[in-house]
Structure prediction request, 105 residues.
Amino acid sequence: MPHELSIVIVSYNCAEHLLKCLQSIHRQVTDFSYEIIIVDNSSTDHSEVAVKTDFPKVNWMSSGYNAGFARANNTGIRASTGRLILILNPDTEMPWFSAKVCILL
Prediction:
């Protein structure tokens, strides 16, 4: 089933930032359907285990190599099902209104 919003995040060795970002999304986005797609650029930290443990519904995609920011975003966009796409950096913590503005535009 398509979502209203697909959130694509590119990850590279940023577990702490990524977990804070995901916590802020789950805390703020409550009144419409969304999916989160993380495209990992071959991280060597504990990002994948931490995300899959704390946020099992997140779609984790491993690129297998450092594909770079643009290519990794394109991979996530191709995998998305949302009517709208929001690209976030992993160090983003969403204020309460951010995703709602995306949907209203």
Q: What stands out?
A: The mean pLDDT is 90. Residues 15-28 form the longest helix (14 residues). The two ends are 22 Å apart (CA to CA). The CA atoms of residues 36 and 61 lie 11 Å apart.
